[in-house]
What does this fold into?
Amino acid sequence: FYKTKVSAKVKLGDIKNDIDSLGLKIRAEAGNPRVVVIIDEYVNKILTGTKNAEATVMGKLLEKGYKVVDQEQLNKIKEDDAIKAAALGDEKMAAFLGKKFDADIAVIAKVNTTSGLNNMEYLKDTFKSESVMEYKVVKVSTADALFAGKKDGRTWDVSENMAVSKTVTNVAEAAGEEFAGNIADKLVESNSIKLTVYVSRPGMVIGK
It folds into this structure.
């Protein structure tokens, strides 16, 4: 077991250029990650087969230039226990599925919607709906959550199905915009290497 000390003279301009180049490389690699989106929707505590939230989030990501695993691929394993666990917030299962689809990021979420008849007189014979979407954005390589949060919304309509569709779409759009705006930056932050350089007077050792 040997301990070795290395001394070197380094030009500050070279260090700055190397650090700048490294930052650009990290940003280039993180700027267009492949994303798998897994979202389950519940209405009045019952799991539905609809995928409005998934499709909405995917659309927002595609608009911003992200690569997305399409729903057709996900449908092939929709009964898999791993995909069910991921939708419930299991980060390790999300990472497992991300690797399966060669993705860099896994968006996992659950949308809970409560709907029913309005009890307000002026909205008689209409239906109300309230949706809450809880989500995590997971870095596949480490199974760590880059960020998490929730979105909620409410509305009414003469049709219960339409009321539910509106609130689910609204919360998914809000979440999708957040994902599209933050995923690349958060991935850059997680990939960045912290480098400390000590600069001394002439004649002294410059080290890391």
About this structure: Residues 160-191 form the longest helix (32 residues). The chain has a mean pLDDT of 82.
